[in-house]
Write a structure and sequence with these properties.
single chain; alpha/beta; seven-stranded mixed β-sheet
């Protein structure tokens, strides 16, 4: 191939121009995603554990990407500082009492920082402000808790299965109540006797009220009850007048 021909030079120039355009387009797209061309300001927050958060991860406010994680720095053995670059057109909405949390996009998605909405009467968070933070819940801790819950559910299921087995095989009082018709009849008779005894006791009490030996006692109780009702009515009327 003649590298000095006019045709080759045109192709080479077109290839170089196309490569430059693709590079500029890539820089523009990446820069727009990372807020390289938007005016930004910095906010910070500190955590005990950033739970896998990385530089470049998104920062969200009200479910919208408003910035990126600019820097993650270990301050001491119990503190990690996270610097965030936030678009300036969001600044008026982030308040001094807004809180920062670390979450993830779905169960296994990338980590991200979420800034909560502050109260309406709070001041706007200035550049460089350190916002209060909430420690993230570790996935390992969630899985451990689920394993404990699953273990408890398994024990409960085994116990229920054992109870149902005993019921179905005639063991225990509950099984006899369900399957033994004689015991059910006896239980009905016992309840009937109890109701009859209760009715008889009520009749005896009524008869005692009319007996001259107990008449004074019951009259006294009736008068006390009537007096109490009158006092309550009087208190109610006094309160209504006030």
């Amino acid at each position: 191939m003649d590298t000095h021909s006019e045709k080759f030079k045109i192709r080479l120039g077109a290839f170089i121009v196309g490569g430059v355009l693709l590079f500029v387009l890539a820089v523009f797209v990446i820069g727009k995603q990372k807020n390289l061309f938007d005016p930004v300001y910095k906010l910070t927050a500190t955590f005990f554990n950033v739970s896998g958060l990385q530089v470049g991860n998104n920062v969200r406010f009200s479910g919208i990407n408003v910035g990126i994680v600019d820097n993650i720095k270990i301050i001491n053995d119990s503190t990690v500082r996270v610097d965030m670059l936030i678009r300036k057109n969001i600044k008026e909405f982030i308040k001094t009492d807004s809180k920062v949390t670390i979450g993830s996009e779905g169960l296994i998605g990338d980590k991200l920082v979420t800034i909560s909405q502050g109260s309406a009467d709070s001041a706007e968070a200035p550049a460089g402000r350190e916002l209060a933070s909430t420690e993230p819940v570790e996935t390992d801790a969630i899985m451990a808790s689920l394993q404990v819950t699953a273990g408890h559910a398994e024990v409960i299921s085994e116990q229920l299965a054992e109870i149902m087995y005993k019921v179905n095989n005639g063991d225990g009082i509950l099984s006899r109540l369900i399957q033994d018709s004689t015991m059910a009849v006896n239980l009905d008779a016992t309840m009937l006797n109890l109701r009859t005894s209760t009715k008889g006791l009520s009749e005896n009490m009524e008869a005692a009220k009319h007996n001259f030996l107990f008449k004074g006692y019951f009259n006294k109780k009736a008068k006390e009850k009537e007096k109490k009702l009158k006092e309550e009515e009087k208190e109610k009327k006094d309160s209504d007048k006030k």
